[in-house]
What does this fold into?
Amino acid sequence: MTAQQNAPDLRPLGVDGVLVRFARTLTQEANARALSFRDMVLEAGVKGVTEVASSLVSVRIGFDPELTNRHTVTQTIQALIAEHKTPDPKPKRLWRIPAAFGPDHAPQLEEAAALAGLTPAQAVAEIEAATTHVIAIGFAPGQPYLGMLPGHWDIPRQTSLTESLPRGALITAVRQLIIWAADAPTGWRHIGQTAFRVYLPETSQPFAFTPGDAVQFVAVSDAEFKDIKQNPDSNGGATCEVLR
It folds into this structure.
């Protein structure tokens, strides 16, 4: 594939934005390129730019029309794209997060496992063995989309909503995992429970995760999970290792 064929697509987005799209389908490479380009634009400190937000395979650059204009922003973005190098795929941080998978904490584990062609025990083993990555943050403050699980986890969302899941719920669909940020309805299946808070508004860094972080889940018993919940200062018993 030539550099030109692999070049991202630039599109206007609203009256004050430009979208840089690295692919039309989600791949680890496209996600890594989007995340690293977001960092590059942030570091560049482009005049008039008010927001730099990444999604699965794209980056939105928002600007203030009173400080700059679309032509100037687009030229700057094109120059940055020309300098953008293949990102280092290695994560900077690795999180290990305890999760309970007992019946009281994983009401739809059996259903999700069956859709993936697994037993519940096999499903938990695969989740523990997987090193997922924060491919995007969205829907709710700090809420991570974690991917990607093996192909047989490409299970659909439900056809109806679950009225409410608790904060910290571990849910799954379309080869991804999410740690639920707040009590809210969802169409994803509830397969485990953590005591981890992804959003910490009382702190100087309210989002626990940064896109690109690696995340592993550690299965714990109901008794262990009860002890973890009784220690509010541990943020669910999670640990974070700086890798580079």
Notes: The first helix runs from residue 28 to 44.
